């Protein structure tokens, strides 16, 4: 994929797992019609001066003054965008935890329902671009929870704030120029151009440069509308992206070793002691969308589940605390039953679970480390 999307995905986690488990459900907020105070424009003299200078540069790159004026009317500096950009925590999640979220029962059931609702559109997209309908649906599921979490931050404000801030200024100025060209083309109005805090947009979270390169008008209404309640253009754009990056029609992404023979592709074991997978060239194409083995396996496995397949058959080893997934789920269930809510029991020990553990530890006179353990599980009965 283009380096731009890889950069921003690594930076903001646009897909629906980004802020992932807090010990249960995803914490990516659904669109609420309102934004936190720090994601609303605030006066900043330096930003205003930067915008004035930027408008001259943008005009030199073919952006009409009327588009510039319209785009920046109501736009402004968003301090929360800078805060989120600077406070990103680098962390790794085991494949077991990742798949527990990527292919949770809820995500699978919602995926099957979404697939059924849009079966005709997805079939037509597969016929045109050659990309499996289930794969397209799975990308949709990971990126925005089937359209429920597309983001409602104004893209012009977000990208201009990050371009002004300067940490990745050149990159985000490029995104801002691309966003303005999208407005100039008439695909969307500035008021409707919303997305994540760092400018990823629509049902499958395209950044502006990826939109320019790959978005399509599948509905034939003259606009490439990835923001619409109708996901057709967004889903087709994702298929176009994968197709143009080398997807082979009719070839599986891969699968768990045993469900596919080793001769069907390359064998990999992403988590030591965990299941092995056979992956094909289409697995590598999914990684062009997001350069992560876990993401690509997550998309592939979720696609298989949407198509009616079952869970991973192989087992994963105990975690660094000596607990299996079943142990962690029992821990979450027992904590919640005691009044220390973990926000679900998926076996993923995220911030909410750690907060619940710490509160329980305090209640019994222990140091509130927030760490799970076999001893803690036994103490809960």
Structure notes:
With 381 residues, this protein is mainly alpha-helical. Helices cover 50% and strands 3% of the residues. It is built from 17 helices and five strands. It has helices spanning 3-12, 45-60, 65-72, 79-86, 95-102, 105-117, 119-129, 133-144, 155-165, 169-185, 208-214, 232-244, 281-289, 293-306, 325-337, 351-363, 374-379; strands at residues 153-154, 194-195, 254-256, 266-268, 277-279. The strands form two sheets. Strands 3-5-4 form a three-stranded antiparallel beta sheet. Strands 1-2 form a two-stranded antiparallel ribbon. A hairpin with an 8-residue loop joins strand 4 and strand 5 (277-279). The protein is globular. Residues 9-32 have low confidence and may be disordered.
Distance separating the two termini: 50 Å
Number of strands: 5
Structural class by helix and strand composition = mainly alpha
SSE succession: HHHHHHHHEHHEHHEEEHHHHH
Radius of gyration (Å): 22 Å
The overall average pLDDT, rounded, is 91
β-sheet strand percentage: under 5%
Low-confidence runs of at least 5 consecutive residues? 9-32
Treating each run of at least 4 consecutive H or I residues as one helix, how many helices?
17
Outline, from the CA principal axes?
Answer: globular
Widest β-sheet, arrangement of strands: 3-5-4
Roughly how much helix do the residues carry, as a percent range?
Answer: 40-55%
Biggest sheet record? 3 strands, antiparallel
């Amino acid at each position: 994929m283009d380096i731009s999307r890889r950069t921003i995905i690594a930076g903001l986690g646009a897909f629906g797992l980004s802020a992932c488990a807090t010990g249960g459900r995803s914490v990516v907020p659904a669109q609420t019609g309102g934004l936190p105070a720090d994601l609303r424009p605030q006066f900043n003299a330096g930003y205003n001066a930067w915008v004035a200078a930027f408008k001259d540069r943008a005009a030199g790159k073919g952006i009409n003054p009327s588009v510039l004026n319209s785009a920046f009317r109501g736009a402004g500096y968003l301090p929360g965008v800078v805060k989120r950009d600077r406070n990103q925590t680098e962390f790794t999640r085991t494949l077991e935890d990742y798949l527990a979220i990527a292919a949770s029962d809820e995500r699978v059931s919602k995926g099957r329902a979404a697939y059924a609702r849009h079966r005709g559109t997805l079939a037509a997209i597969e016929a045109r671009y050659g990309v499996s309908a289930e794969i397209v649906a799975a990308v949709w599921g990971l990126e925005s929870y089937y359209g429920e979490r597309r983001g409602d931050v104004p893209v012009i404000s977000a990208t201009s704030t990050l371009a002004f801030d300067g940490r990745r200024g050149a990159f985000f100025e490029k995104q801002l120029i691309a966003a303005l060209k999208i407005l100039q083309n008439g695909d969307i109005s500035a008021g409707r151009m919303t997305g994540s805090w760092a400018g990823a947009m629509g049902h499958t979270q395209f950044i502006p440069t990826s939109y320019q390169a790959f978005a399509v008008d599948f509905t034939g209404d003259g606009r490439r509308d990835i923001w619409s309640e109708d996901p057709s253009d967004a889903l087709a754009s994702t298929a176009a992206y994968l197709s143009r990056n080398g997807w082979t029609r009719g070839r599986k992404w891969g699968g768990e070793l045993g469900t596919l023979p080793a001769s069907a592709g390359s064998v990999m074991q992403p988590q030591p002691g965990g299941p092995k997978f056979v992956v094909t060239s289409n697995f590598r194409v999914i990684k062009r969308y997001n350069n992560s083995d876990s993401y690509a396996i997550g998309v592939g496995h979720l696609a298989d589940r949407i198509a009616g397949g079952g869970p991973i058959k192989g087992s994963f080893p105990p975690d660094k605390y000596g607990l299996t997934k079943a142990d962690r789920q029992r821990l979450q269930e027992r904590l919640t039953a005691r009044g220390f809510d973990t926000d679900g029991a998926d076996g993923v020990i995220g911030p909410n679970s750690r907060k619940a553990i710490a509160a329980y530890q305090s209640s019994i006179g222990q140091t509130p480390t927030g760490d799970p353990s076999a001893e803690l599980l036994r103490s809960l009965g």
